[in-house]
Amino acid sequence: MSNQKKRNFQIEAFKHKVVVDPKYAEKTWKILEHAIHEIYNHNASGLSFEELYRNAYNMVLHKFGEKLYSGLVTTMTSHLKEISKSIEEAQGGLFLEELNRKWNDHNKALQMIRDILMYMDRTYIPSSQKTPVHELGLNLWRDNIVHSSKIQTRLLNTLLELILRERTAEVINRGLMRNIIKMLMDLGPSVYQEDFEKPFLEVSAEFYKGESQKFIECCDCGDYLKKAERRLNEEVERVTHYLDTKSETKITNVVEKEMIANHMLRLVHMENSGLVNMLLDDKYEDLKRMYNLFRRVHNGLSTIREVMTSHIRETGKQLVTDPEKLKDPVEFVQRLLDEKDKYDRIISSSFNNDKTFQNALNSSFEYFINLNPRSPEFISLFVDEKLRKGLKGVSEEDVEIILDKVMMLFRYLQEKDVFEKYYKQHLAKRLLSGKTVSDDAERSLIVKLKTECGYQFTSKLEGMFTDMKTSQDTMQGFYASHPELGGGPTLTVQVLTTGSWPTQPSVTCNLPAEMSALCEKFRSYYLGTHTGRRLSWQTNMGTADIKASFGKGQKHELNVSTYQMCVLMLFNNADRLSYKEIEQATEIPASDLKRCLQSLACVKGKNVLRKEPMSKDIGEDDAFFVNDKFTSKFYKVKIGTVVAQKESEPEKQETRQRVEEDRKPQIEAAIVRIMKSRKTLDHNNIIAEVTKQLQSRFLANPTEIKKRIESLIERDFLERDTTDRKLYRYLA
Amino acid sequence: MRKEDTVKLISAEGFEFVVHKDAAMVSQTIRNMLTSPVVGSFAETQHGEVTFPEISTTILEKICKYFYWNLQFGKETEFHIEPELTLDLLGHCPFCHWMFEDKIVA
């Protein structure tokens, strides 16, 4: 039949087979009813599908659909009632098995019934808005079995009891559990939820409440977390084995709430085993567990973070304020680095490299490092120590690592300009005394500082390196043009650009005649090659190697400072000199002279001079002699000046003052820059912007900014607005 | 052709058509008959034969032809039905209804 014809034809329903037998419906139904019984009794093999199908078809066709349907409901219900009884009668453990078996039977029967009633399912049921056969079968099962008064609670209790038994480490028949739970799920989500899931969650909450209470009384934090983790995994596993996957989050939420959220603070603060102890003892595993468990609950991570932060702050504060630990700056910085390493390791191995934790760590360090105003100085001293000797024999990569760590501490500093000041001083000493171990390391650190703080920050430091290089060339040129100087003392001059180097008020001492003649020659050479320059001698910064022979003919080469050389040279012409005489002859400033004499006469094993009276300190009335008995097992003897490694209190004050002075123009420059672009701005905004601009160098003090603004007003850079006194105006 | 791969369809007059199961299962109804749950299934499933006491040989033959036609060409191609058979195909056979529902608009 072609499509074309299809449209033209309208075929009337077939009417030839008129039912004459009034008992037709009853008879046909009897056949079908019998078949349903047989199916439930596992006796279908004698039935002809074709016949049953045809009968059902005919019944529907002859408008007995209603009879067929209601007959089905009644027959099935009566079967289910019988099944219900047999399930009720099942004893103890057999109950679930029986239920499961009957459920399987019912499903099979339902399948067969649906097949023979397919025609009804497809035509009669949709048109009369009845429940389809399969669904009907499930509903009847639900109402007659699962919701039967004698089964409903028993089923729930059995299931819950089995789960409880499994929680107390018994082995249960998981396959059976899965089938029964699957049955509840097949009966519709509401059946699963109402008849199982809800009570299950309630009972679980109760169970874990009790258990967590018990654990927390007797376990330490680490053990408790282990137990909680295991419980959590068990529940997840349970879900995968026999519960609806949607239950997973619900049941884990219950465990999380009862075992973690409710005891969070107590766990974290648990005495002798809480978070702080874990941090102290580097318990990576426990910390990781805590992180992973707490992450699951609201506020969990922030709780860990807060406790960690306050712990770091507290220990850090102790570290930077403990006067004992401040004695050795290198040790002090090493401790900071160790502390940082420790927490870096914890965060990377236990806290999943969590950014928020890293930030918390950084802010904690920033907080406590700046509690100690000497931190910048100490960090610079640490670098100094490392670059002087600490890096000998260390590979290039390791040097980089150390420098990177130092840079990290540097980043925490608020007063970066103070660091710069000290760094400059220390670098100058290193360069001038030729003590720097590795030029590469020095330069690498400068590059790092440059990337961190910009060109401005390091330009002077770089200038210092350039000076050193140029000086070498100058000296070569000098000796090349004065070949006659070969025999006498050798002079090495480093020409330092004023401004690049930390300047100290230069008080020139009287150099020995041989030296001052040489210096004059250099001066005329240098000024001859460079016009328009001025040279002044920084005798306080130099060193000298001199050869000396003592009473019994022992010869030594002494490595001393320029001042010390001046003093020692005096003894070429005298055996005894009083303090006053030395002071007069050399004109070395009193404090420097005392220090220099102290190191020459009072240090055991290096006392090339002898002093009367013998005492530790230098008095104005002391007299000095060459120590003829001086011996040393080394030919070369280095006589260090007694220098304070750390700055003394007045020096510190001085540096501080210099820093403050240096800040003034920077603050002013920042104010002018801002005002130039803004034209008018109110007081608070200026303070905020200036602070922000200068943040990379130091933390500007608001009162200082205010003073600078006033100074700028006085100098007619700014004016106050005539109406609003808080508003400033830029005067071009 | 192995026996377990075939099914015997018997007409009202007793003619037997042995067809492939694949072909017979073009009819959802026959598929249901042959694939009922294994335990306690219907007689047809066990014996591998179905008797149609209300379907004449001519019609059953036509039905079998359709099975193979469908298997080979799919539902979409046109299957020729002689006009004199149409009514019988529609009216006599509860099984035809489903087979031809997309072919014949009744």
TrEMBL record, chain A:
Keywords from the UniProt entry: Isopeptide bond, Ubl conjugation, Ubl conjugation pathway
Designated name of the protein: Cullin, N-terminal
UniProt entry tagged with the keyword Phosphoprotein: no
GO MF terms, alphabetically ordered: ubiquitin protein ligase binding
Residues covered by the Cullin family profile domain: 374-601
InterPro entries attached to this UniProt entry: Cullin, Cullin-like_AB, Cullin_homology, Cullin_homology_sf, Cullin_N, Cullin_neddylation_domain, Cullin_repeat-like_dom_sf, WH-like_DNA-bd_sf
Pfam families named among the record's database cross-references: Cullin, Cullin_AB, Cullin_Nedd8
Family matches, as SMART domains: CULLIN, Cullin_Nedd8
UniProt organism field: Parasponia andersonii (Sponia andersonii)
Example of a GO biological process term: ubiquitin-dependent protein catabolic process
Highest taxon, organism lineage: Eukaryota
Gene3D superfamilies attached to this UniProt entry: Cullin Repeats (1.20.1310.10), Cullin, Chain C, Domain 2 (3.30.230.130), Winged helix-like DNA-binding domain superfamily/Winged helix DNA-binding domain (1.10.10.10)
Family: Belongs to the cullin family.
Record's signal peptide: none
Automatic annotation (TrEMBL), chain B:
InterPro entries: ELC1 (IPR039948), SKP1-like (IPR001232), SKP1/BTB/POZ_sf (IPR011333), Skp1_comp_POZ (IPR016073)
MF-aspect GO terms: kinase activity
A GO BP annotation: ubiquitin-dependent protein catabolic process
Keywords for the protein's UniProt record, in alphabetical order: Kinase, Nucleus, Transferase
Limits of the SKP1 component POZ domain: 6-69
Pathway as given in its UniProt record: Protein modification; protein ubiquitination
Entry's localization field: Nucleus
UniProt protein name: Elongin-C
Cellular component annotations (GO), alphabetically ordered: nucleus
Record-stated family: Belongs to the SKP1 family.
